[in-house]
Amino acid sequence: MREIPATPDKIRASVEGDIEAIDKVLRITRIRVRYDLTVPRGKREAAERAVERHPRGCPAANSVAGCIDLDIAASITEE
Fold it and tell me: What is the pTM for the complete model shown?
């Protein structure tokens, strides 16, 4: 990710979703992904751009586009 280490101790994700009954059928209607990133000092802007552009290049996000609302956010800490 833009020359930013993505080792397990530097990137974590929390994911939750909403399930609703639509026409008496349960459907996943929203997925929220929250990343906690630790990046080298001076890489915050690059990390923010990567998070912003992530859905366009993510196979999972593209697979559910138009079917499930996807919210992606990140908390970024520089070290």
Answer: 0.82
